[in-house]
Design goal:
heterotrimer, A: 11 helices, B: Rossmann fold, 4-stranded antiparallel sheet, 10 strands
Chain lengths: ~290, ~260, ~290
C-alpha cells in the first residue's frame, strides 16, 4: 500500500509539471482554436534561461525562477507577433497557424542546438537532497517544491481568470472572439496576455523539469505529453488540462514502477489513442457536433 | 406513398432542441416550401434529411425506406441532393470542373483503370465530359465554363450550385435559401428556373426561403416552422391568412403576402 | 557513392515521400506529421525482408509498401474521423509510438539500430522508382479520383452531398501516401547502410510537409521542385544540420505569411507548357537574329 501511495506522490509531482504545460497549451487553444506546437520550444528556452541564470549569472533560485518565467513569456509573445499575428491579420485558415507553429518550433529548437550546443546540462542542487518523511512515505524536496510551485501558480491563474476583469475578457474571447470584440474587448490585448501567461507557465514548467531531469535542446518534445494531457482532459478546458495532466503523471509513474520505464511512454500514447477513439472530447470536454 | 416523410423528428444539441417533433409529408412532383423566422430549425431539417446530422429521435423515410442516420453520400445515392445557404461551390475550380465532379457520381472506373489509362478510363472520361457539357447547356452555363466559380456573378453561382446538384439525377432537390441576396428580377428568373428544372428533370423540390413572393407563387404546399416546431401547414392562401404565422413573423396583426 | 551521386539519391528518396504526402496534404487537404513513422516501418520491413529473409530488393520494397499501406488503414480507421487538430496530434502520436516500439524492439536492433545493410540503392533505381511514382500520381490526379480528392480539400461538406464517400477517399489517400513513404524509407535504409529509430523523428515528418507546402499545395511539379530545392540547397550551403533546420523553420513562417500558396501556387508545370515556353523562347531568339 505504501508503495502505491509513494507512486501516487511521485506521479503527482511530474503530473503537476505536465499540468503547467498543458494549461499553457490549452489556454492558447481555447482562445485561438489551434495547437501551438511552438509551446515545446518555449518550455525549453525557459529551462535554459533558468539554467544560465543560476550557473552563469549566479543568481539564487527564486530570481532564476522569475527570469525563466519572464523570459519564456517574452519569447512566447515574440513568436506570436512574428509567426501568428500576421496570419491573424490576413484571416488565414487555422492550418496555416499550425504550419507556422511547426516552423517556430523547429527554429527555436535548432537555434539553441546551433548556438549553445547539444550537451545535456544539469542544474545545481539548490534545494538540498534530504527527502521529507511522512510516515513511511518519502517526498523528495524537489518533488515537493514542484508540486507546491505548480499548485500555487495554477491557483493564481484560476484567481486571475475567474476574478479579474482581464480574466473575464479572456473567458469571453474564448467563447466568441467576434462577439467579445463587438462588446469592446481588446482582442489583441487578450491574445498578448494569454501568450505571456502561457509562456510564463511554460517557462516555469521548463525550469522545474530541467531541475528534475536535465536541460537539453530537444527537451521541448516533452510537450507531446502536454498535448496528450490536454486532449485527455478535453482540449480547450483548463480544469480538464490539469486533471488530464495529473492523471497522466500518475499513470506514467505507476507504469514505470510496476511494468518498466520503456512502457511508460507507450502507455501515454496508448492513452491518447484510447481517448481519441472512445471519447475525443476528453474527460471534461463538451461533446459538440459542428453546426454545419 | 409520399416521396419524403419525416415522422416525429427531433434533434437536440446538448440542451438545445433545434427541431422538436416535426412531421412532414412531401408528395412527388410537388414544390414544398419551408418557411419560418431565422433559427427556426429549417436548415437543421435539411441537414437531418441529408445525413449531415443524425436524428435524436424520429424517422425519415424516402420512397418508403429509412434514410435517417445514413451517411450523406448514401443519401445522395438514394436520390436527394441540395444547395447551401452560403454557397458551397468548389470555389477554386471552374464551372466545368464543378459540374464534372458531381457528374462523377455515376462513373465507376477504378484507381487501377486511371493509373493504367486503359480503355475503361478513356471511355469513362468521354462519358463524363458529354454529361457535363449537356448539363451546362441545359442550365445556360456553357458560356462561363472556364470561369473560376469564385469569380462568377452571384446569380450564376447560385445557378451553378443547382446545376451541380442536378448532376446526380436526383428525385428530390433541397434548396436552402436559393434567392438570398437577389433582387426582384433575379428572383423571378430563379422561380422560372425552378419550374423549368422540375419539368425537365421530373423531380420534386423542398425549398427554404424568406422571399415570400417566391414561396407563395411557387409552392404547392407550405410548412411554417418556429422554434423548431411546426407552426402551420397548408397552401399559400391558408398560410397567408393564418394569424399564428403572421404573429410569429411580425408579432402583430399585419397582412402578409402580395 | 560520391558526393554528387549521393546528393541526387538523397533528393530522390525525399522526393518519393514528398510525392505521397503531396496526395494526402496537397490534394486531399489533410495535414499529417506522422509520415516519418511510415518511412520507419517501410525502412525496417524492407531491411528485414532483404537482409534477414534474403528477398530480392525490389520485391522487399513492394512487400514493405503493401504492409505499411495496411498499417496506415488501421491508423486511418482510428484517426480520420477526427477534426483537424486532433488528426494532427494523432498522427504525431502514432509516429512517435512507432519510433518508441522500434527503440525497444531488440530483434531489429533497438535503439542502436540495424547496421550493415547492403547498399542496393543507387542513382538509377532511385530515379526510376521516382519516375514510376510520378506517373502513377499524375494519372490518379488527372482522373475522377483526383478530382474527388480535390473536392474534399475544397469543400468537404459539399463533397459528401454530391455523393463522394469522403471517409473512403481519405483512407485511400492516406494509404497511398503511406506506401510512397514506405518505399522511400526502404530506399533510404539501403542508401545509408544503417538505420536507427532516431532517424525517423517528428522533425522528419515536418520536413516533408514543409517541402509540400513550399512547392505549393495541389501541384505535383511544385512538390518535385520543393523536394529538390529544400534537399539540395541546405546541404550545399550549410554544413551543420542544426543551422539548416533554423533556416527551414524561419522559411516556413515566412512562406505562411508571405506566400502560403507556395512556389507554384497550385498550378502545374506540365511537359506541354515547358515545350511551349521553350518554343516561344526559340522564336524570340530567331527573331532577334533576323533583325
Amino acid at each position: 500500500m505504501t508503495t502505491f501511495l509513494q507512486q501516487v506522490i511521485n506521479g503527482l509531482s511530474i503530473g503537476s509539471i505536465y499540468a503547467l504545460m498543458a494549461v499553457g497549451y490549452s489556454l492558447v487553444y481555447s482562445i485561438m482554436n489551434f495547437s501551438n506546437f511552438a509551446h515545446g520550444g518555449v518550455i525549453m528556452i525557459g529551462s535554459y534561461i533558468g539554467f544560465f541564470a543560476m550557473t552563469v549569472a549566479g543568481v539564487p533560485f527564486p530570481a532564476a525562477f522569475a527570469a525563466a518565467a519572464l523570459g519564456a513569456g517574452l519569447v512566447a509573445v515574440v513568436v506570436e507577433k512574428a509567426a501568428y499575428g500576421p496570419l491573424r491579420q490576413r484571416k488565414a485558415p487555422f492550418l496555416y497557424y499550425i504550419i507556422s507553429a511547426m516552423g517556430a518550433s523547429m527554429f527555436l529548437e535548432n537555434i539553441v542546438l546551433a548556438t549553445i550546443g547539444p550537451d545535456f546540462r544539469t542544474f545545481p542542487n539548490v534545494l538540498g537532497s534530504k527527502p521529507f518523511q511522512l510516515g513511511e512515505l518519502m517526498i523528495g524536496r524537489l518533488d515537493l517544491a514542484m508540486f507546491l510551485i505548480s499548485s500555487v501558480t495554477l491557483a493564481l491563474l484560476v484567481y486571475f481568470i475567474e476574478k479579474t476583469k482581464t480574466g473575464m475578457a479572456i473567458r469571453a474571447t474564448s467563447y466568441s472572439e467576434r462577439a467579445s470584440a463587438l462588446m469592446g474587448v481588446n482582442t489583441e490585448k487578450v491574445i498578448f496576455i494569454i501568450f505571456i501567461i502561457g509562456g510564463a507557465l511554460a517557462g516555469i514548467a521548463g525550469i522545474l523539469f530541467g531541475m528534475k531531469y536535465t536541460v537539453f535542446p530537444t527537451m521541448g518534445n516533452i510537450t507531446m505529453k502536454a498535448f496528450i494531457a490536454a486532449v485527455f482532459g478535453g482540449l480547450g478546458s483548463l480544469p480538464g488540462a490539469v486533471l488530464g495532466a495529473v492523471l497522466l503523471g500518475i499513470i506514467e509513474t505507476m507504469t514505470s514502477a510496476y511494468l518498466s520505464s520503456t512502457w511508460r511512454d507507450l502507455i501515454a500514447f496508448g492513452l491518447l489513442i484510447f481517448i481519441l477513439v472512445v471519447r475525443p472530447s476528453g474527460l471534461m470536454g463538451k461533446n459538440n457536433e459542428d453546426k454545419a | 406513398m409520399s416521396l419524403l416523410e419525416l415522422k416525429h423528428v427531433t434533434k437536440q444539441f446538448g440542451g438545445l432542441t433545434a427541431v422538436g417533433d416535426v412531421s412532414l409529408s412531401l408528395q412527388k412532383d410537388h414544390i414544398f416550401g419551408l418557411i419560418g423566422p431565422n433559427g427556426a430549425g429549417k436548415t437543421t431539417l435539411f441537414n437531418l434529411i441529408t445525413g449531415v446530422y443524425k436524428v435524436t429521435e424520429g424517422e425519415i423515410l424516402f420512397e418508403g425506406k429509412p434514410i435517417h442516420n445514413r451517411e450523406p453520400y448514401q443519401v445522395a445515392g438514394a436520390g436527394i441532393t441540395r444547395t447551401f445557404q452560403n454557397i458551397r461551390l468548389f470555389k477554386t475550380l471552374t464551372t466545368y470542373e464543378n459540374i464534372l465532379t458531381a457528374c462523377q457520381y455515376t462513373s465507376d472506373y477504378s484507381f487501377f483503370d486511371a493509373i493504367l489509362r486503359n480503355r475503361r478510363f478513356k471511355e469513362g472520361e468521354k462519358l463524363l465530359k458529354a454529361e457535363t457539357e449537356e448539363l451546362m447547356e441545359l442550365l445556360g452555363l456553357s458560356e462561363r465554363r472556364d470561369m473560376v466559380a469564385g469569380n462568377l456573378p452571384y446569380g450564376l453561382q447560385r445557378r451553378l450550385e443547382i446545376a451541380r446538384a442536378l448532376a446526380l439525377k436526383p428525385k428530390l432537390l433541397l434548396l436552402d435559401e436559393p434567392a438570398a441576396g437577389m433582387n426582384e428580377e433575379e428572383t423571378l428568373k430563379l422561380m422560372e428556373l425552378i419550374r423549368y428544372v422540375r419539368e425537365k428533370f421530373s423531380l420534386s423540390v423542398l425549398v427554404i426561403e424568406h422571399h415570400m413572393d417566391l414561396i407563395m407563387n411557387l409552392c404547392d404546399h407550405i410548412m411554417v416552422l418556429n422554434f423548431g416546431k411546426t407552426l402551420a401547414e397548408g397552401d399559400a392562401a391558408a398560410i397567408q391568412s393564418d394569424p399564428r404565422v403572421i404573429e410569429a413573423y411580425l408579432g402583430e396583426e399585419v397582412e402578409l403576402g402580395a | 557513392m560520391d558526393y554528387i551521386n549521393g546528393m541526387i539519391a538523397l533528393i530522390g528518396i525525399n522526393l518519393l515521400a514528398v510525392l505521397g504526402l503531396s496526395l494526402l496534404t496537397g490534394f486531399t487537404g489533410l495535414f499529417s506529421f506522422g509520415h516519418a513513422g511510415f518511412m520507419a516501418i517501410g525502412a525496417y520491413l524492407t531491411v528485414w525482408f532483404s537482409m534477414k529473409l534474403g528477398v530480392n530488393f525490389y520485391a522487399a520494397l513492394l512487400l514493405a509498401a503493401l504492409i505499411t499501406g495496411g498499417v496506415s488503414l488501421v491508423i486511418g480507421r482510428i484517426t480520420l474521423n477526427l477534426k483537424g487538430d486532433y488528426f494532427i496530434i494523432a498522427t504525431m502520436g502514432f509516429a512517435e509510438a512507432i519510433r518508441l516500439i522500434l527503440d525497444n524492439f531488440q530483434a531489429f536492433g533497438g535503439a542502436r539500430g540495424w547496421p550493415g545493410i547492403t547498399t542496393h540503392t543507387n542513382v538509377v533505381n532511385v530515379w526510376l522508382i521516382n519516375l514510376i511514382g510520378v506517373v502513377i500520381l499524375v494519372n490518379i490526379i488527372w482522373s475522377r479520383h483526383g478530382r474527388n480528392f480535390k473536392a474534399i480539400r475544397e469543400e468537404e461538406l459539399a463533397s459528401q452531398i454530391i455523393g463522394i464517400n469522403v471517409f473512403r477517399y481519405k483512407m485511400i489517400s492516406l494509404m497511398i501516401s503511406a506506401m510512397y513513404a514506405a518505399v522511400s524509407g526502404g530506399l533510404f535504409a539501403h542508401y545509408m547502410s544503417f538505420i536507427q529509430p532516431k532517424m525517423f523523428q517528428i522533425i522528419k515528418s515536418t520536413e516533408l510537409t514543409i517541402m509540400v507546402i513550399f512547392g505549393g499545395m495541389g501541384s505535383v511539379s511544385g512538390s518535385i521542385i520543393g523536394a529538390i530545392i529544400l534537399t539540395a540547397l541546405p546541404q550545399v550551403l550549410l554544413s551543420l544540420d542544426a543551422w539548416r533546420y533554423v533556416i527551414y523553420g524561419a522559411a516556413v513562417i515566412f512562406i505562411m505569411i508571405a506566400r502560403p500558396q507556395g512556389m507554384m501556387g497550385g498550378f502545374e508545370l506540365t511537359p506541354a507548357q515547358i515545350k511551349g515556353k521553350l518554343a516561344a523562347l526559340k522564336e524570340k531568339r530567331t527573331k532577334k537574329g533576323v533583325a
